Amino acid sequence: MRSDTIKKGFERAPHRSLLRATGVIESEADFDKPFIAIANSYTDCIPGHAHLNEVGALVKRLVREAGGVPFLFNTIGVDDGIAMGHSGMKFSLPSRDLIADCVETMLRAHCFDGMVCIPNCDKIVPGMLMGALRVNIPTVFVSGGPMAAGIAQTDATSELPEHLRPATEKSDLITVFKGVGALQTGNLTAEALLKMEQSACPTCGSCSGMFTANSMNCLCEALGLALPGNGTILAVSKEREQLYRRAATQIVELVKRDLKPRDIATLDAFDNALVLDVAMGGSTNTVLHTLAIAREAGIEYDIARIDGISRRVPCLCKVSPSSDYHIQDVHRAGGIHTILGELKRLGALKTDCLTVTGKTLGENIDAWDLRSPTVTDEARLVRISGCSALVLDPNDKMGATARTASGNLVPKPMIFHPADDRAIALWRFAAAFNANDATACGAVFGAKGELEVNAETTWHGAAEIEAGLKPKFAEFRGLVRAELGEVRGTPVLVIWQYERGGAKKIACVLRVARLHAAGTIARASHDYDPKTLAVAKPAGLMPHDPSFRFDAQHCIRSADRAYTADGGLAILYGDLAPEGAVVKTAGISDTFKANCGPGFVFEGPTVIFESQDDACAGILAGKVKAGDIVIIRNEGPRGGPGMQEMLSPTSYIVGMGLGDKVALITDGRFSGGTAGACIGHVSPEAAEGGPIGLLKEGDRLRIDFPGRRIDILVDQAVLAERRLTWQPVTRELNGWLARYRKLVANASKGGVLSA
Fold first, then answer.
1. Which residues contact 475 (CB under 8 A, 6 or more apart)?
2. Are the beta carbons of 134 and 104 closer than 8 angstroms?
3. CA–centroid distance for 260 within its chain
4. Phi, psi (5° rounding) for residue 572?
5. Angle between helices 285-296 and 267-280 (to 10 degrees)
6. DSSP-assigned states of every residue in 460-500
7. How far apart are CA 398 and CA 395, in angstroms?
8. What is the pLDDT of residues 672-685, one digit of tens each?
9. What is the mean pLDDT of the chain?
10. What is the structure's pLDDT at 594?
């Protein structure tokens, strides 16, 4: 084992002495076991990472149970949303390289045999991927999971208490950013903006749309370095604990097989990841990160290859900000492996690539694609369980915004019997029960399970349980709900009977006597004894999916119903971007296309800003008009430095009613939450003398989206004359950003650092 370098032989006695002092070594036998690094990224600064202290502790326990010796460490992390709109955003992209260097440092210094990476947001995922591929020891990625979408409006016609009603309108972080612009124009009140702020981000987890964090976590599944479900099972679903257990078990197996990241992340695997990316309209940042990750794998992957993929792969799925769907909807429709299943049927994937499951991508798809004839029972169980968040009852101590009076997050499922098989099975049943999904309820029991309804009636097997529950659900009308709880320390379900006004009382308790080896319930029974009900302790964990009735075929489409024949991301070239630029075509509205006129070509005068700060001020001051092309330059990797995300200016444009009437071009980048005709990563950037730096206010540009070109409608002789007098914008720097500016390449090369 690699760890023998620090733990074997008499000369390593001092090393072993220090290892004992850590408290991790529990017996002499530990020195014969694989040493597993757990690269965590807990920080209170990021909602997607605020729960990872508990996740890290759980994974550490599960690795120990699987036969490894776990050593936990943390990386830094920048919250892009909190860093947005001020100088803090300059540190976001550079943090990716710091994280990669930190992972490399820890692995090489301590000679680990394998690693579990627990990232979740923004630059932490690609940073860890870069470090893992650089060092190349067996590694499994398992993220902290996505945030649930906010509930902006519920069905007023429902007879249910308001917090249990189906959602008619959802919200997310981008809703709030747009609200700022709407407030500025008088289209939103301060009170309405406050309501958005309080409800848009209801739980921990990576922001709920197909933004950068979730895009990267989904790509990890296609790349083969994460297990099925990694990108879409909600952070607050107890189902995620089962994923952590599978990851902990699998890393020990990968060490035995010595299956390493570079064995998995091959050229074909990167193609698979980008095929998924363009099919689901992922964040434009995935292009930047994929180029950098491939470089660490020793693969020369260029932007032209991505362009070729985007031309031949259709867009099958649109998620916020490109539609009203959110990540939990993608999971409910079947998850990433169902999208991959559609791509497999299209012949767009290299299905023989190895993955961390030890099987090929094709084998994983066969097992986890809900539309596959060979889909497993576990995949069916995970569908409802994984997309269920928590009921936010306004009458309990957590309040309507899911926070305690002291500001703590809503209680997290892993606090309740973490990774306990019985608790997970109960969560699965409660999620299906609360969604009135009798088929899923039956699946939790399997063919041989038994559900004792009362002393006279017991239902046997999934089919009988399903048949028995269907009329019950019609009778309950959603007013009977299941919540996790305890009776004398044992996990149970507390079954509540609600009244229309919201009052509730315990009707009974559901006990699980035993489980099958596969995790399904072998036998469960209802307990109506008043003495039991008196000692039952609800845990505050009631699974709730406010949008469980919807058309899965509309969320994840087959090729014959694709949104577009080409992908949701496109690479543009032309006079302005000789080395390429990136646009998320999936986020461009039909209204904007109509405003372009025939041929989907947009032409207009430029309004130029030399920084994001200038752009925000100018947009809010009304300097941008319909028909303009907004240019924000000197914000590339070197010019910024740090290549800031432009979520604030794009959100202000949308909030001010200009989202379908203007285009925006920058040598910086966009948040995964950006939608509209927003073109980023223009290369070469202004700071290195790129054509974008030669533009003057009022110059006209032509953007040919189908032709994938951006051309400058200025005589070339005029541009050549401007180049003679061009001078780069200078910004005084010190510290990390000064070093970063000297080393960083432009976006077409992934914004990587030179050696």
1. none
2. yes
3. 24
4. -110, 145
5. 170
6. EHHHHHHHHHHHHHHHHTT-EEEEEEEETTEEEEEEEEE-T
7. 8
8. 777 789 999 999 99
9. 93
10. 92
CA distance 30 to 34: 8
Instruction: Give the DSSP H or E segment for 424.
Output: helix 421-434
Q: Highest mean pLDDT: which of 103-107, 613-617, 652-656?
A: 103-107
Provide the greatest CA pair distance for the chain: 93
Contacts of 224 (CB under 8 A, 6+ apart): 264, 265, 269, 272, 353, 354, 355, 356, 361
Closest CA to 440 of 478, 474, 461, 466: 466
Task: Pick the closest to residue 614 from 633, 601, 600 (CA basis).
Answer: 633
Burial 470-498 (b: 16+ CB within 10 A, else e): eeebeeeebbbbbbbbbbeeebbbbbbeb
Question: Per-residue pLDDT tens for 621-654?
Answer: 999 999 999 999 999 999 999 999 888 888 889 8
Question: What span, in angstroms and rounded, lies between the C-alpha atoms of 256 and 268?
Answer: 25
CA pair distance 287, 302, nearest whole angstrom: 10
For residue 251, count other CB atoms closer than 10 A to its CB.
30
In this structure, what DSSP letter does residue 630 have?
E
- List, for residues 414-447, the tens digit of each pLDDT value: 778 999 999 999 999 999 999 999 999 999 999 9
Tell whether omega for the bond before 684 is within 30 degrees of 0, i.e. cis: yes
End-to-end Cα separation, the chain, in angstroms: 30
Query: What element of type H or E holds 703?
Result: strand 700-704
Q: What is the 3-state secondary structure (H, E, C) of 162-189?
A: HHHCCEEEEECHHHHHHHHHHHHCCCCC
Distance CA 507, CA 87 (A): 55
Helix or strand (DSSP H, E) at 681: strand 678-683
Pairing between β-strand 490-498 and β-strand 480-487 as defined by DSSP bridges: antiparallel
Model pLDDT, residue 548? 62
Long-range CB contacts (within 8 A, 24+) of 194-197:
196/152, 196/171
Q: Are 510 and 524 in contact (CB under 8 A)?
A: yes
Distances (CA, A) of 177 to 89, 285, 524, 657: 16, 19, 47, 13
Would you name the residues annotated as active-site residues?
671
Dihedral angle sign, alpha carbons of residues 707, 287, 213, 688: negative
Q: Which two structure tokens, joined as six digits, stand for 196?
A: 């958005």
